[in-house]
Design a protein that fits this description.
Rossmann fold; transmembrane; alpha/beta; transmembrane helix; membrane; 2 domains; two-stranded antiparallel sheet; AB_hydrolase_fold
Length: 347
Amino acid sequence: MSSNVMGGHKPTKPFHDTQRWRAVALASLVLVLVTSTIIIKGKPSSPSGVSNLKSNSFHTSIQFQPSVEFMNGTNLIWQIPKSPKAVLFLAHGCNGQAANFWDKSPSCQNCVGLPEERLIVLHALERRFAVLSVSSLGRCWSFGKEKENVKWIIKWWIEKNKLEKLPVTALGASSGGYFVSALAAEIKFSSITIMIAEGRFDSMAIPESYPPTLFVHMPKDRIRAELILMNMEALRQKGIPVKEIRCMQFPLAPELLSDKIPGLDQTLSVRLFKVFHEKGFIDKNGYMRNDGRAIPWKQALMQRNLLLKKHELVKHIEEELNLAFAYHEMTSLQSDDIFDWFESHMN
């Protein structure tokens, strides 16, 4: 994720020591070769990337009108559409916050509205999901008292808003993905989505009632992709429906940033693209040469005086650069598939 989500770098093993990861990678090599094409209910796993860039132009009449509350030491932000048909709990990644999912508005002056997070919420509201986001107590999510705290918050919020009869879903990215995977063993979710994380299945008992699980990940992170394949098989052995969506890199385009980031106009987007090309941050076909956290793009733009009035959009731009490189970032490009998954397991 962008620096606000993953602490300014791209760790590939946030919860595992190096020796264990090397051992797992070697042990799973054969499995990866055998199961490189996963078949689930007769359908292959779906790669995602350039074909889903139509999501850049997602338009909706939905407006952000979130409610904000501070409870049990953390921030809750939510919005309930007219005639909701389901509930969605959202868990951010490390260094994230609930405010990342919502645009700044009169009801949420501290909201940030990162491009991928906000689009996930807009897709959810468009599909009539009541959306609840909660901030972690620390830099990343923890799995003791914090898990119990969030369980209580979700139950309290659902009862307060009289949503008890609706199916409850969850989506977590990176640290939030680990958190949702653990939470799902104790909360009755109708289905979950784990994004750019393999989950905590190696350190917990998987009940037979565990919800259908969709993994949305970026196979450029090869070690994590191998672990996801292993965990998918473990869930499948329990009779739990599983599926994966593989998110591939895609080329930048001159107007991509203005398409995805409110407040960044088309003229600036084209100028930024030109700088990225001149500095060699992208190749002749528009593909990022490295992750947005690893290239000095901010310094290059400062030299051109392109960020003096738009410094508040740095995190937003970095998120889109990370997404284009497709190593480890929140993504909304697969929103249609994600919400199709949720809706297919609501009965």
